[in-house]
Amino acid sequence: MEIKTLHINYRNLYYPPGGILLWIIIFLELITFGMSLVALVFSSRDNPHLFHESSLHLNKTFGTINTIFLLASGFFVANAVHNFKENNFKRASNQFKIAMLGGLLFILLKSIEYYAKIESGFVLDTNTFFNFYWLLTGFHLIHVIVGLVILFLLNRNLKTKAIEDIEASAAFWHMCDLIWLLLFPVLYLIF
Question: Directed axis angle between helix 128-155 and helix 89-119, to 10°?
Answer without folding.
Answer: 160
